[in-house]
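dumping the sequnces here before i forget
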Amino acid sequence: MTTQKITGKITHQTTEGGFWGIISDDGQRYRPVEGIPQVFQKVGLQVQAEIEPYAGFSVFMWGENVHLRSISAGNA
Amino acid sequence: MEITAEHIFGPVFATVAMFFYGRAIVGRASGRQIRILPALILIMGALLFQILTTDGTIIDVVCRVLLSFGVAMIIDSRYLAAKKEHPKMFWVPGLLALMISFVLYFFASLAGYTSNGFFAGDGAQDIESGQVLIELGPDDAISELEEVLEKYGAEYGRAFPMVDLDENEDLAQTYLVRLPQDQVDAFLAEVRRDTENVDHSGYNSVIRLNPPSVARRTETSVEGNFLANDPQLPRQWWIRRDGNAVHQLLRNARPKKKARVAIVDTGIDSGHEDLRGIFSKSPADSDIQGHGTHCAGLAGAATNNGVGIASYNWEGRFVEVRGYKGLSDDGSGSVEQVSEAIILAAEDGADVISLSLGSKTALPPFTERAAIEYALQRGCIVVAAAGNNRGLDAREHSPSNIPGVIAVAATNAQDRRAPFSNINTKLKMPLAAPGMDIFSTLPAGKYESYSGTSMATPIVAGVIGIMRAFAPDLSPQKAWRILHDTGREIEDSHEVGKLIQPAAAIKAVL
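..and the predicted 3d for all of it:
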């Protein structure tokens, strides 16, 4: 599967009991199926991440389901 | 784990700090005039550096600090031993620090309190991928792929052994192939070239568990006169609105059968006080995540039982609920997991299959489509959530976009499309139902409000279940037609379809 690098901001959605996601700088929504590490769970935190597509389903039904391969705070 | 400069510099800093601290302590003990303050400042600096540069939970930080200082103290003790200067002072605490670090991390990992910190390495986010689903042609055998399977070191088995070839060719000929993650793309490329044997192929992602944090909201109570005596009913705005009309219809009605509503989800807490009476023996009778239990309560929680919430299922006489675990405890599931749960529900004679799940894709996975077709062929009515992508058309969301599925968008208490809900302008069987601030059951006897098209879906599934209890041969198209024709036009109906009117729909089949 293709790994993709994105930069964006952490978001928290309250639907379906609540979950964390990333809205990339180009407006795309990504929900890591493994969740987002607790230290990055801050609304508005700028992050860069490496993601891979996840070909499955979830109860959250928001954005693209992805595997989070790496994540770090900041832009560069 | 990627080793960064911080990972190396941290322990080195700690070692140096401990060394000077050790020299100061030993020097003082020997009666020499050595200042201890600079060494203490150094060691506090090392501690601070460790905390600031360690990713992960507080347990990760504590364990990493203990590990660094433990290693540093042991190095110091060896240095002091060589100098014949009190090595025990650091040897014992060093060993203790290491032991505490390892023991704490071991038990914290088991309890899920660690993340990708110093010890976790890539394991904290390891993906158990490397799975592929392939569907062979009806006359083809997996042995014909033996060469390529062997080449990639793949193991395989039938994905749905419960389905015979004469029942459903597609599902019976679907195989789950396991192989190294880095070989998946090459393997898929190769089998896709084999059009003679392979009809379809695709990824089957699976994931490790990591329970999500939960944000919940509750509503305030409202007084009212209700037929049902369930104490939490005042918190259920949609039942407050039309519950009495439905309950009035059902109070003295005798159904032809008790309909089965299958909740394909994270499981159901079958022991919940408000579900015990309507839960029917089925594979997923527990629920860690909670989503499936919430949906089960909406589909048919025992009503007029003096406990908890109400549903439309008066006295639990019209609908029984069964649980099928298509999703893991973090709320996600592979194509194979969800498909298998749908197949099992269909084989168990489900009247309605409720799918409060989905994925943003215009092209449904072939296995999912085959599983739903299998359920439809067996007479099930399949209801699926339209998705929560804030206005995306449900045509871009699966499985709501699979032909024959009733797709459900969510509305709020003002009968407007819930802001998070997808729209539904292209699919053939759209409906809208309450999905915002929906109060229902959660595991361990709890109740909370959730919002989502997931909540609207089991409400519709429960109503269709009641309709099936009176009209056992009701087809999916007929059920949708009744709900549509009796439904109410709302301001956003051009986006989400008509808002269901349960009393009118049930009345139509009495």
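Confidence is low (pLDDT under 50) at residues 115-128, 207-222 of chain B.
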